[in-house]
Design a protein that fits this description.
67% helix, 3 domains, elongated
Length: 368
Amino acid sequence: VNSLANDPSTATRAGPAAKLAVEFNSGRFSASELKLAEQIFRIMVKDAEIRVREALSANLKNNPSVPRDIAVTLAKDVDSVSLPILSLSDVLTTEDLVEIIRSNQSQAKMEAIAGRKTVDADVAESLAEKAGEIALAKLAGNPGADLREGALNRMVDRFPDSEKIQDPMVHRAALPVTIVERLVTRVSDHLRSHLLSKHRISEDMALDLVLQTRERATAGLAMGVTDESLFALVRQLAMNKRLTGSLVLRSLCMGNVRFFEQAVAALSGVPLANTRILVHDSAGSGLKAVWSKAKLSPALFPAVRAALDVVAQTELDGRDLDTDRYTRRIIERILTQYEMFGVEFANDDIEYLLGRVSKLPAASVALH
């Protein structure tokens, strides 16, 4: 106090601030000295000189006895002051951290919070909603973070293709099976192998997920190729028993009518020209006949018919996300079609929809 009174320069204020904080941490202060020190801290956290506030933060970050108001003030300060407290102070409550995340744009602050020794579920959820890619990668790799399904889903929603986040997420000690299912169709091959081997899922589910990934890639590959290349692809798929009903439906949902026609022709043995006439028969009997001849699942037929109805009524305009809007329109029509048969779906995601429709017993949906 005497040094502050005799020489109030910046350098002098920063030195005593650090020394006072060290003594405060030592536990040697009496009750009255503690109160005096706290009063001085409350003045110093408002000091205009950043080095004074930095000295306080650096020296009080590990002390669980720091009054909460002082810790919160330092935590809300500029990054160079706040980061030590945000990273290490146990004085800050869940409410304090959530408020800082929601009211702040500083990614450095969020990275500090994401790397804390423990991050509870509420804080993790707030980070999942607001933090950037680097902070979320740090959160995903933090074994002390309580990451629930909702937060993990939000991270995947916001950064679906980020390997920086996927890598530590895949290597977490445990993941909900719903997250495993989402990740396995997105991650690179080496991460997928780790995901399927480490996280407990049934062999059937693992097979379903691998097939789903393969079919998504195949459907994407079939978009925009020449008729000759498409013919060769369809024949190869048929020869290897990979021209499945779900792949045929997936391609139609993506607007690839040419693939659909080629696939049905290959599976039914009906010439392509005749298949096209039957598929687009306005009465619907031609489609039903060629679908049955192709020996494709009757449970998929209402979805196919609904998708073709949308195809007939929709013209792609070439705008950004055109295919996404088209697919969404088809899925909405398919959901409506199945509701007529009393079949309800809990999700309108294309992967979920295709998985559910493909597993419906034929008896549950008549081939109308």
